[in-house]
Amino acid sequence: MNLTKKSGIIQGKHGKSISYDYQYNSDLDNNTLPTVIFVHGFKGYKDWGAFNLVAEYFAQRGCFFFKFNFSHNGTDPGHPNEFVDLEAFGNNNFSIERSDLGVVIDFVESLKGELPLETKSLSLIGHSRGGADVLMKALEDDRVKKLVTWASVLDVENFLSEELKAKLMKEQKIEIYNGRTNQYMPIYKQFMNDLLENSDIYNLKKRLKNLWQPLLICHGTSDEAVDYVNAEKINELAPNSELFLIDDAGHTFGAKEPWEESDLPKELALLLEKTYHFLVKS
């Protein structure tokens, strides 16, 4: 099996670059590879943990798999796995992420003809906060035909606690501690301004009834960051959805950063099998 892999940079619309990579099985060069775009979450990036093994899993099974770093996730093209641009991180918001995802979809569509992919069955996978991003994008972009959420949040407007929101409005800035990197990562008041200015867009509790695409909702029952009640509520609201709970799985489905094993953690392997069959086989 020959996997073709490539990385590069796209210019975002908000002054920062979007790093990306993709891979596919070049033995299946038949212009019909289903396209899957992966969206990382808060304090995440495209190469976090076992995400490269995730990409290989889908590519080996005949998908064109594309993953990227949000332009304001705190990394930069020279340091795609490090939070070296905390100013960008502090100025990130859901509007920028939705814009970045639109740029990425446009770019992937532009590769058709040059690479053996087809976008008529374009699918999105979003992890954690990225799950909310793919839900919002699917509601506004008919190019998205299927989507999967992994450990997704539902209530975007309450992504921050009431205490943190009040502090942010009063002090213009809060800091979130990243225990893995030992960094205090800023969030500026603009994040709250974006939530308030776009409250109708971010109200997924009201909007999900209009989601027509097939949706697979995956969550671990031992998620320490986002309670799996979020998955149950999404399943209640979305009309064409399927709920898949993994007993005892945490927020990252057994993966950690760095992931130095050659095999997937068992929870993530189970998640990938279900996701693949939903996106490609169903």
Automatic annotation (TrEMBL):
UniProt entry tagged with the keyword Hydrolase: yes
Any Pfam family the entry gives: Abhydrolase_1
Residue ranges of every copy of the AB hydrolase-1 domain listed in the record: 34-163
Keywords from the UniProt entry: Hydrolase
InterPro entries: AB_hydrolase_1, AB_hydrolase_fold, FrsA_esterase
Gene Ontology molecular function, alphabetical: carboxylic ester hydrolase activity
Keyword Hydrolase belongs to the record: yes
Family indicated by similarity: Belongs to the AB hydrolase superfamily. FUS2 hydrolase family.
Protein name according to UniProt: Pimeloyl-ACP methyl ester carboxylesterase
UniProt source species: Aureibacter tunicatorum
Taxon lineage: Bacteria, Pseudomonadati, Bacteroidota, Cytophagia, Cytophagales
